[in-house]
Design brief:
Helices cover about 10% and strands about 35% of the residues. It has helices spanning about 5-20, 125-135, 145-160, 175-185, and strands at about 165, 165-170, 220-230, 240-250, 255-270, 280, 285-295, 300-310, 325-335, 345-355, 365-375, 380-390, 420-430, 435-445, 455-464. β10 and β11 form a beta hairpin.
């Protein structure tokens, strides 16, 4: 075999062992993604311990892989935020939305993890987490309710709120203020007169005992001049005059308090009388009144009250006789013919009994009636007629005389079984509903006159 070819083959083997051929690069599947301007600013590759620096492109799948079995030191600075649209940008993980804290009743403790998708960690799960996950999932139905918690919540709600939708609870209320308000009338109308019956008027004659059935707030000055008959026993004529005032205070539309008699008395006698004339303070009469029936549709009123007749006046005019007298009474009002073209009518009836707490004073029974016409229903002019009846039911022991003085004087005399019926005509005019004036002239109709020959009465009402 010729030496030339063998020498050439040996030379090729030796050359390949000492200088290996350069490895051919793998053909890329596609063009490398373009780096954004932010990636151009990445710090240089991290040097590998014991070797020369090696350039590695940033991994889009996670942290760099160790080279030659040595750990790679993490970069000092964090990666800059990725630019939208870059293939080399790390996947952004959205921050969990802010969870609004809500209060959640848990009568049996916090819910536990069950691996149902809310959480897979063991232990209790907060209510805020559960509700936030439900909202994120777009749930349209609330989570299942806890029957125990619902039962407890309903029981606590009965104590917290006794009403439903602005309506009173069907259970009865035992509050004292509610019961008192139902009996006494609307609280918002306290101290104001009952103006639902402004078509009525107050009577004029016998003003101390003939009471209006309405609940009123007013001041009522009164003037009375009464002539004594010339044939009156022990007095032989003369005059009795009263000037004073009444006052009424309406607590509600039903309850009111009245001062029926407060003022002064002037007493004069005729010639030859054993009694001399004098003047002084009158007795004080006052008490409560309550309207039991108050029907606006039918125009009906019914009230009752109690008067205390206290003899705290002057002895010279017989206003200090004996002790206290009590007067229970009732008064009724009815509107009539309200559709009558010339005006409606109002009828009032009143009655009571005065009985003394001592034997010094006389007892008596009285009845009163009143009829007026509201001319043309103007509520301005009211012509009226009235009748008053008194009968003495017992004798007193204060004075040895044989007559009595009806509503002006309680002599405590010997007049048991005697009585007097009188009639009055008059008119009341309303300047306004708050300012009214009335006048009446009264004469005897039947019975023994005693101190009553005739009487003239005028009053003026200032009403709230």
């Amino acid at each position: 075999m010729p030496r030339g070819p063998w020498a050439t083959a040996l030379l090729l083997v030796v050359t390949g062992a000492t200088a290996p051929a350069a490895a051919q690069p793998l053909a890329p599947v596609g063009p490398p993604p373009a780096l954004s301007s932010s990636l151009d600013q990445l710090p240089p590759s991290v040097p590998v311990r014991g070797s020369a620096p090696v350039d590695h492109p940033p991994s889009i799948l996670g942290a760099p892989i160790a080279v030659r079995g040595e750990p790679v030191r993490p970069p000092v600075d964090p990666l800059p935020p990725a630019v939208s649209g870059s293939a080399w940008a790390p996947a952004s993980i959205p921050e969990p939305p802010a969870v609004q804290k809500t209060t959640r009743a848990a009568g049996l403790g916090a819910p536990m993890a069950t691996g149902s998708g809310v959480t897979t960690a063991a232990g209790p799960v907060s209510a805020a987490t559960v509700e936030s996950r439900v909202r994120q999932a777009g749930a349209t139905t609330p989570p299942p309710t806890d029957p125990v918690n619902d039962f407890l919540a309903r029981r606590s709600g009965y104590k917290a709120d006794s009403t439903r939708d602005g309506k009173h609870d069907s259970r009865p209320s035992w509050k004292l203020e509610d019961r008192v308000g139902d009996v006494l009338g609307p609280r918002g109308e306290w101290f104001r007169s009952d103006h639902a019956f402004d078509g009525f008027i107050s009577p004029v004659s016998n003003p101390f005992l003939f009471e209006d059935p309405r609940s009123l707030t007013e001041i009522r000055p009164i003037f009375i001049s009464q002539r004594i008959p010339g044939k009156a026993r022990d007095f032989n004529g003369g005059h009795v005059t009263f000037f004073g005032t009444q006052a009424r205070l309406a607590i509600t539309d039903r309850l009111s308090f009245t001062i029926n008699k407060l003022g002064g008395v002037w007493f004069s006698t005729g010639g030859g009388s054993p009694f001399s004339g004098d003047s002084g303070f009158s007795e004080l009469w006052f008490g409560p009144k309550y309207t039991f029936i108050r029907n606006e549709q039918t125009g009906s009123l019914l009230a009752g009250g109690l008067l205390f007749q206290t003899p705290v006046g002057s002895p010279g005019v017989f206003q200090n006789t004996g002790g206290l007298s009590l007067v229970p009474y009732a008064t009724y009002g009815q509107n009539l013919f309200r559709d009558f073209r010339f005006g409606s009518f109002n009828f009032l009836a009143n009655g009571g009994y005065s009985f003394a707490t001592s034997k010094s004073r006389s007892d008596y029974l009285y009845l009163n009636a009143h009829l007026d016409m509201d001319v043309m229903n103007w509520h301005r002019i009211y012509p009226l007629v009235e009748m008053n009846w008194f009968v003495n039911t017992s004798n007193g022991t204060a004075n040895p005389i044989g007559i009595e003085g009806r509503d002006l004087i309680n002599f405590g005399g010997q007049a048991k079984g005697t009585g007097l019926l009188t009639g009055a005509i008059g008119v009341r005019g309303k300047i306004t509903e708050s300012a009214q004036i009335g006048t009446a002239f009264e004469v005897p109709l039947a019975g023994r006159r005693d101190l009553f020959d005739y009487r003239f009465t005028v009053d003026f009402i200032l009403r709230y």
